[in-house]
From TrEMBL:
Its main location: other. It is found in: Cell projection, Cilium; Cytoplasm, Cytoskeleton. InterPro entries: ODAD4. The lineage of its organism: Eukaryota, Metazoa, Chordata, Craniata, Vertebrata. This is Uncharacterized protein. Keywords: Cell projection, Cytoplasm, Cytoskeleton, Repeat, TPR repeat. It comes from the Eukaryota. It comes from Cirrhinus mrigala. One of its GO terms (cellular component) is cytoskeleton. The keyword Repeat applies.
Amino acid sequence: WEEKLPLACGGLEKTWLFHEIGRCYLELKRYGEARDYGSRSLMAADDISDEKWQLNASVLMAQAE
């Protein structure tokens, strides 16, 4: 997923990619990276005013705590 980031062309795609990368780090118990990508996903979701992805990103960040 990280290799795909530079190729992402839309805000929704970036939001989704950041979230998926964060989920992968969460599964690997790398909580700092999971929280970082959750935060990046939240910022991208804020940029496109997508409430669903704002919630998803917030949940990911909480799970990484």
